[in-house]
Write a structure and sequence with these properties.
Layout (H helix, E strand, L loop, with lengths): L12 E3 L6 E2 L3 E2 L4 H16 L6 H17 L7 E3 L1 H12 L1 E4 L2 E4 L8 E6 L4 H5 L6 E5 L2 E2 L5 H8 L6 E7 L7 E6 L1 E4 L3 E6 L3 E6 L7 H14 L4 E5 L8 H9 L6 E6 L4 E6 L10 E5 L6 H11 L4 E4 L7 E7 L5 E10 L15 E2 L10 E4 L7 E6 L2 E6 L6 E4 L22 H9 L4
Parallel strand pairs: 1-20, 14-15, 15-18, 18-19, 19-22
Antiparallel strand pairs: 2-3, 4-21, 5-12, 6-7, 7-8, 8-9, 8-10, 10-11, 13-14, 16-17, 16-21, 20-21, 23-26, 24-25
Helix pairs in contact: 7-8
């Protein structure tokens, strides 16, 4: 099974059958005491555990073993995805799936639950009456409030033209609202555009994690040219990376020559991709980054910076300079394994360092919410904190503990895919980019 080369996520997805034949430096898994102990543990549980172990529970035990092996590497970019999660990621890479047309994020601090942060205009959910801010509490009658986000996504997505019933809680409404929605084809649009003052075109890439990014970029830039754009801003803020090939193609779209990125593994360093003479934009441009710009975003920013093609403006980037191979396992799950690091055209390693902007500007779009906690208060007592002319109040629990976290208004998103929503007046990084382009 062939897959695109990943970077986010890393590099080529390879199909492998994982067995117990070899373990560490060619030694037999069964001859390694720990390997033998792992097998013995599973067999003892199967035979001796108080409650019978059925096939489903046995699968959970084995997948727990895989997760344990991977977790013992203590590498934040190496992971195991069970079959269902792997399927969702495969859909994301293709850039399309059958669903309801909403963007969701976890509703709870532990990553569980689902809150709708955007409803795309013209999609099935929009037509049914679901609104931004709704909290999903049911899918087809099942309580999903404590499920991981990936599990909720897998329940909402499904075959074309099938129905799914979504139950939501809406602010100001006590009853659960239920909507029966027919799943339709949803295209993941990762590139959005806008025309800014003084003929400046603006294009933002949200992620590189699907194969349609480069085509969407070409279309966006072509549209901006038709609208009279003579200078360009490429916004890579909050873009955590994705497909390495898409990062290469995006950088290539603005460069005429030279290496775009090198890869270095255990054995060698080599040029992974190089620019071709043909570009989609030859005019002046600026690249925007922040602390959440990572991986493929850093490849693009680093290449354009090293080649002197564009000034990079914003914050120090995240510093994710390693790539992974994603191996498809025998059970349909995927092992995402760090196997190489990447270097900029000048062979700069940015892992755990990031790309330093040519012009540093703090990203002021998302203020830090105020939070406080403590203990020792009278149970049930009100605890107040006054600062900056505002007073914040919370109530101590039965043990005298208290905590408060300020709820900030949600980020305003465009509900039209492909159309960017920007704030020229209050976005400090964007304002600086316009100044550098001579377009105050």
């Amino acid at each position: 099974m062939a897959h695109p080369r990943l970077l986010w996520a890393g590099v080529a997805l390879l199909t492998v059958a994982v067995g117990l034949a070899q373990f560490g430096g060619g030694a037999s898994f069964e001859r390694n005491p720990n390997g033998k102990a792992l097998i013995e543990t599973y067999e003892i549980i199967q035979e001796q555990y108080l409650k019978p172990i059925g096939p489903e529970k046995a699968d959970e035990l084995l997948q727990g073993g895989i997760s344990g092996v991977v977790g013992a590497l203590d590498d934040p970019f190496t992971s195991y995805s069970p079959p269902r999660n792997a399927h969702i990621r495969e859909e994301d890479v293709r850039g399309e799936f059958f669903g309801i047309g909403v963007q969701i994020s976890p509703a709870n601090p532990d990553g569980t639950g689902a809150k709708i942060v955007n409803v795309f205009r013209g999609g099935p959910a929009f037509g049914a009456g679901i609104k931004t801010g709704d909290v999903i509490v049911e899918v087809d009658g099942e309580d999903i409030t404590e499920l991981p986000l990936f599990d909720i996504v897998s329940k909402i997505r499904g075959p074309k033209d099938t129905k799914v019933t979504i139950g939501v809680q809406r602010k100001g409404v006590s009853a659960v609202l239920r909507f029966e929605i027919v799943r339709r084809k949803i295209e993941i649009v990762s590139v959005s555009k806008a025309m800014l003052p003084n003929d400046v075109g603006y294009v933002a890439i949200e992620t590189f994690l699907n194969v349609k990014v480069i085509e969407q970029l070409r279309q966006a830039v072509a549209d901006l040219k038709r609208q009279g754009a003579t200078r360009l801003i490429l916004d890579l803020r909050d873009n955590g990376g994705g497909l390495l090939d898409q990062g290469c193609q995006v950088a290539d779209a603005f460069l005429k020559r030279g290496v775009i990125v090198y890869t270095r593994d255990r054995r060698s360093t080599r040029a992974y991709c190089e620019a071709s003479p043909r570009t989609i934009w030859q005019g002046e441009m600026v690249v925007l980054v922040n602390g959440s710009s990572a991986s493929a975003s850093e490849i693009v920013a680093g290449a354009l910076q090293d080649e002197g093609r564009a000034q990079v403006v914003g914050e120090q980037t995240f510093g994710k300079g390693v790539g992974q191979n994603v191996f498809t396992l025998a059970n349909g799950g995927e092992l995402t394994l760090v196997t190489f690091e990447w270097l900029t055209p000048k062979k700069r390693s940015i892992h755990e360092q990031g790309i330093t902007p040519d012009v540093k500007v703090r990203d002021n779009r998302f203020p830090t919410p105020l939070a406080f906690e403590g203990l020792g208060a009278e149970p049930g007592a009100e605890v107040t904190l006054s600062t900056g002319g505002k007073t914040y109040t919370t109530t101590a629990d039965e043990e005298g503990k208290f905590s408060f976290s300020e709820e900030l208004p949600p980020r305003e998103l465009s509900d039209v895919q492909g159309e960017a929503k920007v704030d020229v007046q209050n976005d400090a990084i964007l304002k600086k980019a316009l100044e550098l382009l001579g377009a105050r």
